[in-house]
Amino acid sequence: MSDIFNFSNTMINWYHKHGRKKLPWQINKNIYKTWISEIMLQQTQVKTVIPYFKKFIKKFPNFKTLSKSSLDEILFIWSGLGFYNRAKNIYKTAQIIKRKYKNKIPKEFNTLIKFPGIGKSTAGALLSLTYNYYFPILDGNIKRVLRNFYNLKIKKTKLEKKIWKKLNLLIPIHNAQKFNQSMMDLGKKICKPKNPLCNICPLKKKCLFFINKKSITKKKDIKKKKKTIKKCWFLLKTYKNFYFLKKQKYNIWKNLYYFPIYFKKIKLKKKLKKEKITKKNKKIKPFLHQFNKYSLLIKTIIIKVKKKKYLKKKNGIWCNFFKMKEIGTPSPIKKIIKKYIKIIKKNNKKIK
Length: 352
Hints:
The protein has 352 residues and is α+β, with helices and mostly antiparallel strands. 47% of the residues lie in helices and 11% in strands. The protein is built from 15 helices and six strands. It has helices at residues 2-18, 31-40, 46-59, 63-67, 71-78, 85-100, 109-112, 120-131, 140-149, 156-170, 176-189, 208-212, 216-222, 265-274, 331-347, and strands at 228-239, 241-245, 261-262, 287-290, 294-304, 316-319. Strands 1, 2, 3, 4, 5 and 6 form a six-stranded mixed β-sheet that branches. A hairpin with a 3-residue loop joins strand 4 (287-290) and strand 5 (294-304). It is globular, with a radius of gyration of 24 Å. The relative contact order is 0.11.
């Protein structure tokens, strides 16, 4: 028991001196802010999330404003953050809470875990970080801290189960909020995936990773595979404005608006031939967009169409790049628009 007691006390004491206490979602804290931040932080780093969180809260300052919004409005604010299912889950959950819980986010763990995008860890985060309820959290940072501390070398499928058991023993009853935050902060600041700062770690005296001087994470880094590069072509159809399509054959960014996309050049050529398009403009330079498993080499072709009506489809809209509508667009589309506007400003004329 003494080791368990020392672990949690050591972490809470470290948190008082070194923990993060001024993150945007920690100021005037409430369960709504904690929920939005926790969903945004899934698979995304804090520094990336901060500007998106601020923009989101500015647009939807409380749950009531969020519950009245459309999915397109949420996706518009989310555009560029990636993993768009998270935004859809926020929308779905907001609609459920609005309909069944009178616009009040429940405080019961067993209710929260039934909502889209909220699992065991996220439900624990909402309740412990907001109300100091006795629930542990298991994110990537905490997993790494405990994996290193106990020097766990077991299969991934068994690792998580093992760490949950350890966490349930380590978490203190009265200071769950500070303990959880301290574990996340230690993983972020000290127990890093690369070059962990073991010499200043408050747990080093008991940490088996430090004692054995074996790097679990370094071995993993060596095995890291080089990403494959896939090609795609975006077709920018212009008739005064530009044409965006929501549902396409390639469902790469579901529910988002983007330009018609082609992954095979031969299909692009057939399309251009079918629409009798011969004039093409390639002023936007190709660029790479990174996904988790591969890189996408994006090429952009601008074409002028004769009639706006000719290209009108059920899920298509026309937008002016300089006065964009509030629609969700993926990060590469935002980059293309930015590049296009830069060219226009540079040349001080429109591409026709």
